[in-house]
Amino acid sequence: MPEHRPRRTILSVDDHELVRVGLRQVIGQHFADRFHVAEAHNLEQALRFLDERADEVFLLLLDLNLGDTRGLAGLRLLGQRHPRLPIAVVSGSNDERVRDEVRAHGAVGYFCKTGDTDDLKGLLDTIERAATGTDGALADAPAGPHDALARSRRLRPGIRLTDRQVQVLELILGGLDNQAIATETGLALGSVKNCVSTVFLAFNVRSRAELIGLFS
């Protein structure tokens, strides 16, 4: 059998070279040569790297605003393509609403580029936890929404949801109401209500609180 090699690569995805260099230096100063930092300057390059070398990566550091993606779109796509890969967002914004949305979409952390001591310590702690996690996932991090379908199947074997219903389930677990889900997905409000009713029926629950309680 081939020898198991621990993952030791951090993939830094940012379109500003100074940020990538800064992150590489900070990681090198605190962890010496324990980890290798690979870099991508846009989402396409990051996805191409992961297609070839995802088995080496234990943590991805992601800027939300890249040359080829804006907002949560990149985080969503990475979560869909690589649901077991922990992603920490490193952003120039310190907006609490953005922090909440990022965590609701499965990120294991949100850290500001301004150099705040708490954010820096949190980032270093996240790297350490990710490096000692199991199968590429943080050992003590809450499961992200992109794990919703896997968790639902463990709760109820044989459950069947469409991709759209899984997406709505993820957003419900992220705390969004029907109107917010309609805005997020582009669905009509009536279609969202139908999806929510189907999800409730699948899990035999009558309210959001009851559904969220199944996953807590």
Automatic annotation (TrEMBL):
Residues 154-216 form the HTH luxR-type domain. InterPro entries: CheY-like_superfamily, Sig_transdc_resp-reg_C-effctor, Sig_transdc_resp-reg_receiver, Tscrpt_reg_LuxR_C, WalR-like, WH-like_DNA-bd_sf. The keyword Transcription applies. GO terms for molecular function: DNA binding. Keywords: DNA-binding, Phosphoprotein, Transcription, Transcription regulation. Residues 9-128 form the Response regulatory domain. PROSITE patterns: HTH_LUXR_2, RESPONSE_REGULATORY. It comes from the Bacteria. One of its GO terms (biological process) is regulation of DNA-templated transcription. The modification 4-aspartylphosphate is found at D63. Signal peptide: none annotated. PANTHER family: NITRATE_NITRITE RESPONSE REGULATOR PROTEIN NARP, TWO-COMPONENT RESPONSE REGULATOR. This is Two component LuxR family transcriptional regulator.
